[in-house]
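User: My notes are a mess, but here's the protein and zinc ion's SMILES. Can you give me a structure?
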Amino acid sequence: MTTNDTEALLAAANYLPKFDTVEEERLHRKQRLAAAYRLFGKFGFDEGIAGHITARDPERLDHFWVNPFGMNFSHIRVSDLILVNEKGEVVEGDYGVNTAAFVIHSQVHAARPDVIAAAHAHSISGKSWSALGRLLDPITQDVCAFHEDHALFDDYTGVVLDLEEGKRLAHALGEKKAVILRNHGLLTVGHSVDEAAWWFITMERSCQAQLLASAAGDPVLIDPDMAKLTAGQVGSHISGYLSFQPLYEKIVREQPDLLD
Ligand SMILES: [Zn+2]
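Assistant: No problem, the inputs look usable. Here's the predicted complex:
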């Protein structure tokens, strides 16, 4: 890494919010989470009651915030979010939790202490690509964020309702930022809600891009060395965080009630 790279990373790190109290940090995570749901709704990632984004509580580290069962992504406000404990019990909030959300996300959060947030939805390009049972190829600059940093869960055994299945899924994810769940959809994680949501949004678009390009012809692959270089540029935690900020500003301006 050059001096310039180090300086750029330090400058970017200054963008990361700092908190004086755990309450401030919790509110910040919940605001980002509600905004991420609104964006998922806006982009059409909802499919009935499927899909969930979780944010680890900053104090009770085995608890996470998640959407109320059955509420449309586009209606979710900060005050609607529920807090679920390590047993799957709702300990704050007036709604139930989707069993699949608990089973999948509790195991991902448990296996990956570094992960603050995880996102999963049955978005159309993600699930279409997942049906092919293979990883994404380095065919665009954007998809290089996932170069050597996404995995395939090469199995499908029905709706994930069993903790053992959640564990296997978390094992497939390993230390990576994303996993393609065969015949199901995408799951992404991040060191912030912003990052996990951004990886999901850009991965969904990358699936769409490869489906389109492959339908039209034979996409040219980016050279492995260049894919690796680009991964370092567009695939870092900071890059994921920063990429989400314009979307956050946009959705808060369009739908300010999400902060209620
Ligand atoms: Zn699912």
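The pocket of zinc ion is lined by residues 50, 100, 120, 122, 184-185 (CB under 6 Å).
User: Great, I'll file this with my notes.
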